[in-house]
Task: structure prediction
Amino acid sequence: MEEGDIYSLLRVILQRLGDQPIAWRMDGSANLRVQGVDVLVHDLDIKTNKEGMRIFKECFKDCMVKEYYKEEIEGDVLEFTFQGFPIEITNNKYNMLHRIKWVTFQAMSLPVLPLKEAREFYVAIGREKTVTVLDRHLS
Result:
C-alpha cells in the first residue's frame, strides 16, 4: 500500500465517521507509516471500543467482509475491503485507547499509538524486525 492509498483510505474513514463521538486510533504498520517510519503497509489496522465497533459497522456496512471473535487477541474483529484494500477494526482489552497521540498526516489529524508504546507492543509479541526498525527510527 502506497502513501497515497493510505491517505485515500483514511480520508474516507474520517468522512464516514464525521463528527460521531468515537474513540479510535491507528494501529499496525499504517500507524508506524503515518508517523514517518519506513515500513511496508499491507492493510489498515484500527483499534476501537465496543461502541466504536458499532459505529464502524454502521458506517462501512456496504463493504463489510466479516465479523468474528478472535481468540488470540481475545477480542472482536470487523474486516472490510475498501478501494481494494483490507481494513481490520479490532476491540479487545488491550486496545490501549488511553495511549493516543494526535499527529498530522497529509493535512489530516489522526489518533495514533505513539511509537514508544508501539515498540513495547512489538517487543511483547516478538516482532524483532519491527522493533529493530523502530529502534533505528527512534534514535
Remarks:
- The radius of gyration is 14 Å.
- The chain has one domain: 3-130.
